[in-house]
């Protein structure tokens, strides 16, 4: 997976704004003991690339001038008002150095889960988890099979088996074993009878009027 980018020498908020107006995302790459380097990447190419690749949990390559670097997307900054991408941080990795990466969970057999067939609702409490892993062992996701899960049941992090070569960044303990997914009964909304409510409102009006008259007197 290769992504071509272009070097840029101008930095600063004004220049970044001009880049975005010209159809490019301002970006920077750092890590691997090298100085950070600023560049720009085509919005159209990057948008398509991100839709087809899990860029925050899968290693890919960028071609910058004469260099090809293995990277991950470390951060995507977005506008708080429009949610549009403002800047992208890439992190260059070393193939022999362990990474700490947030890897998403992939929930399988959701439609066939016991609790779902009984009318329950799935609650995805945690959707990703930080792991330590060498680049060669980095998984695209961590599988969570919920087929046997019934209403009122749940799966905690300690019940999952991580892919080979993966270790949790934060070890399971008595104080740390987050709930990953559960199935609960659907909420029942009790709708008040409209006619009864209207009648109750009418009955209360004279009493409220009397109280008001008494207060005036």
Overview of the molecule:
The chain contains 4 helices and 13 strands. The chain is α+β, with helices and mostly antiparallel strands. The strands form 3 sheets. It has a 6-stranded mixed barrel with strand order 1-3-2-6-5-4. It has a 4-stranded mixed β-sheet with strand order 10-7-9-12, with no helix packed on it. A hairpin with a 6-residue loop joins strand 5 and strand 6 (85-92). The chain is globular and about 60 Å long.
In short:
This protein is an alpha+beta fold and 217 residues long. Helix content is 21%, strand content 38%. This is Large ribosomal subunit protein bL25.
CATH superfamily of the largest domain: Ribosomal Protein L25, Chain P
Number of helices: 4
Helical percentage: 10-25%
Under the CATH scheme, the architecture of the largest domain is Beta Barrel
Query: What is the class of the largest domain in the CATH system?
Result: Mainly Beta
Q: Order of strands side by side in the largest beta sheet? A: 1-3-2-6-5-4
Number of domains: 2
What oligomeric state is this? Answer: single chain
Q: What labels would you give this structure?
A:
alpha+beta, disordered C terminus, RNA Polymerase Alpha Subunit, Chain A, domain 2, 6-stranded mixed beta barrel, Ribosomal Protein L25, Chain P, single chain, 217 residues
Secondary-structure blueprint of this entry?
Blueprint: E1 2-7, H1 13-21, E2 24-31, E3 34-42, H2 43-52, E4 60-64, E5 67-78, E6 85-92, E7 99-108, H3 114-117, E8 121-124, E9 128-133, E10 142-145, E11 154-156, E12 167-168, E13 179-184, H4 194-216
Parallel strand pairs: 1-4, 2-6, 7-10
Antiparallel strand pairs: 1-3, 2-3, 4-5, 5-6, 7-9, 8-13, 9-12, 11-13
């Amino acid at each position: 997976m290769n992504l071509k980018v272009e070097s840029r020498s101008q930095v600063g908020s004004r220049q970044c704004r001009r880049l975005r107006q010209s159809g490019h995302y301002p970006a920077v790459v750092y890590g691997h003991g090298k100085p950070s380097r600023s560049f720009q990447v085509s919005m159209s190419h990057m948008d398509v690339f991100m839709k087809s690749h899990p860029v925050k949990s899968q290693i890919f390559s960028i071609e910058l001038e004469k260099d090809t670097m293995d990277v991950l997307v470390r951060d995507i900054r977005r506008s708080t008002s429009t949610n549009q991408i403002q800047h992208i941080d890439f992190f260059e990795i070393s193939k022999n150095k362990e990474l700490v990466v947030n890897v998403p969970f992939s929930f399988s057999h959701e439609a066939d889960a016991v609790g779902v067939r009984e009318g329950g609702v799935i609650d995805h409490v945690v959707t990703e988890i930080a792991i330590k892993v060498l680049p060669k062992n980095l998984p695209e996701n961590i599988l969570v099979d919920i087929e046997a899960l019934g209403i009122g049941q749940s799966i905690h992090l300690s019940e999952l088996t991580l892919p080979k070569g993966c270790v949790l960044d934060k070890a399971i303990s008595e104080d740390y074993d987050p709930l990953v997914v559960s199935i609960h009964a659907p909420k029942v909304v009790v709708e008040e009878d409209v006619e009864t409510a209207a009648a109750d409102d009418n009955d209360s009006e004279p009493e409220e009027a009397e109280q008001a008259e008494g207060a005036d007197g």
